[in-house]
TrEMBL record:
Name of protein: NAD(P)H-dependent oxidoreductase
Flavodoxin-like fold domain span: 1-203
InterPro entries from the UniProt entry: Flavodoxin_fold, Flavoprotein-like_sf, NAD(P)H_dehydrogenase_qn
The organism's taxonomic lineage, starting at the top: Bacteria, Pseudomonadati, Myxococcota, Myxococcia, Myxococcales
Entry superkingdom: Bacteria
The species this protein was found in: Pyxidicoccus parkwayensis
Amino acid sequence: MNVLIVYAHPEPRSLNGALKDLAVRHLTARGHEVRVSDLYAMGWKAVADGADFLSHDSGERLTYVRASKDAFADGSQSPDIAAEQKQLLWADAVIFQFPLWWFSMPAILKGWIDRVYAYGFAYGVGVHEGERWGDRYGEGSLTGRRAMLSVTMGGRAPHYSDRGVNGALDDLLFPIQHGILFYPGMDVLPPFAAYQVDRLSEEQWPSVAESFKARMDGLFTDTPIPFRRQNGGHYDSQQVLKSGLGHGASGTRIHLVQPNEPEQLPVPLR
């Protein structure tokens, strides 16, 4: 299988660098083909602007969404954007390796999403009419692929629990896992998380490495997070969760299919 690792850390000798290198070795040894997009080494341009579109007239007012749509459609995107889109389409699974900085991804990785997720590629896909809001949240151009976050944190695990001061990790990662990965159709695996990484000793590394290798072994077999599909009958015509669903859950968890609920509900004929 083909695995793309999108790696965002400025220091190759960091724990993030070690996890990235371990993933490459371990997955390759298991017979997978692995590619790495090392954003800092690539000098990735994080800022989304008019330079992303080869045909854009710098004298014209820039509407980024419209320019993105036109450039994707006519093949006039910046070459670095087009190259990373090809990487995503090549991959059967994508691993995002990064440190949690200020409760989110590093700016360079967010810039990768902003630029690579072009209109017509990751959003603005499918039919938008009636009660259908296009192919998104479980459908889209990246359907059939798997994705997993591998995230390092300086804080302690209890800080990222339901009652922890930082908030539950799943809630913090919801905009990424649901809004960035599931939106264009990828099946999202539970994240791999490493805590207190700035205090990690050499003696503790083997335990972290073994846990990470176990996750690599389940990359194509582990059960994804059961996010509700937008067009799976769970939401009404205004994309609000239907009455009677989500009981026993709160917050972002209502957007997970609950144990007593079917994955697909009848969708009214239009």
